[in-house]
Design goal:
By secondary structure, the protein is mainly beta. Helices cover 14% and strands 37% of the residues. It is globular.
Length: 327
């Protein structure tokens, strides 16, 4: 009985995601190690050109860290003295490559009347100031969340709730108002216990992570296309997709590593940018793979021999039956 129960518990996360393929990851390649002792709870992660941007979990002042390739902090932007519960980052979908959205969206008790996002500049060097902040409210009541997403093709913000039995993806209005709360509308189911997420640069896919696994979805259908096992981390709460489609993850803790998650071939093929149609590709969808023609499988024996042998057996049995009746 106990064994069956354990098997069900192990299977539940996979059943909840409705995933079509499961793949595993090894330790992952170390991209950099945070050298700044002030980075103690990396909870959000964004890749901007040659920088990695992160933010501490609740309890820190409102500041964003820009980290160079060697792991050293090269810039800090302070945007608030005492935010409520900062949990997420997302890139701003504009031609400007030096801004991020900071999500003050954590709500463990699901009791906040509203949450907020702030558009913060991130560059080398330190700065501080008051930056545009927008209030958000859920259409169906307060939710805890740690995942902030921005569609790179439209700039629209999305939040994924952090819930044990399955999260929900919520969409903000296309244009945010600074004068009144912006309503987050539920639009799709998502991974349970989600801790972060990110879009691929072309906006056709996104990934949502939890503590031990991540799910890659098509967008906007939110059809799950792959299930990724993530490298072991103490408390993994950050994920980012680089401009060239690599997936990076971070974890809470001091002097922790940012790892690149190895993507299996089928995942790389699924998220690869669409090819422009030309020549022989005309008439076929740009994203469709070339048709695969399977070689016919060789039978252990020639088909005519198998059929002939079967017919012979039938005839032989008939003769035996006739002889028995003659007796």
């Amino acid at each position: 009985m106990v064994g069956r129960l354990l098997a069900v518990l192990v299977a539940l996360p996979f059943l909840a995601g409705g995933v079509t393929a499961a793949v595993s990851a090894d330790r992952g390649e170390v991209v950099l190690t945070f050298a700044d002792p002030a980075v103690v709870e990396s909870s959000g992660l964004v890749a901007l050109d040659d920088l990695v941007v992160t933010v501490n979990d609740s309890g820190d002042s409102g500041r964003v860290f820009a980290v160079g390739p060697e792991g050293r902090t090269v810039g800090v932007t302070t945007f608030a003295e005492s935010p409520t519960d900062v949990e997420a980052l997302a890139p701003v979908a504009t031609d400007s490559a030096d801004e991020v959205w900071v999500g003050d969206i954590g709500d463990n008790a699901a009791a906040r009347s509203s949450i907020s996002v702030t558009r913060v500049p991130v560059t080398r060097g330190d700065r501080s100031g008051e930056y545009p902040t927008f209030e958000l409210v859920y259409a169906d009541g307060p939710r805890d969340a740690e995942t902030l997403l921005v569609d790179p093709t439209t700039g629209r913000l999305h939040v994924v709730s952090k819930e044990i039995f399955g999260g929900t993806l919520y969409s903000a209005p296309q244009r945010l108002s600074a004068d009144r709360p912006n309503v987050l509308e539920p639009v799709a189911d998502a991974l349970a216990v989600a801790t972060d997420g990110a879009f691929w640069p072309d906006g056709r896919h996104l990934v949502v992570r939890g503590y031990g696994r991540a799910v890659v979805y098509e967008w906007p259908s939110m059809t799950a296309v792959a299930d990724l096992d993530l490298p072991d981390q103490d408390q993994g709460e950050g994920i980012a997709v680089t401009a060239d489609g690599r997936v990076l993850v971070s974890t809470e803790g001091q002097f922790t590593d940012v790892l690149e998650v190895p993507l299996p071939r089928e995942v790389r093929q699924a998220v690869a940018p669409e090819r422009p149609t030309s020549g022989a590709d005309r008439g076929r969808p740009a994203s469709a793979p070339a048709p695969v023609v399977e070689e016919p499988r060789a039978l252990p024996l020639p088909l005519w021999l198998l059929l002939g042998g079967g017919a012979g057996v039938v005839v032989l049995l008939g003769l035996v039956a006739w002889a028995v009746r003659r007796r």
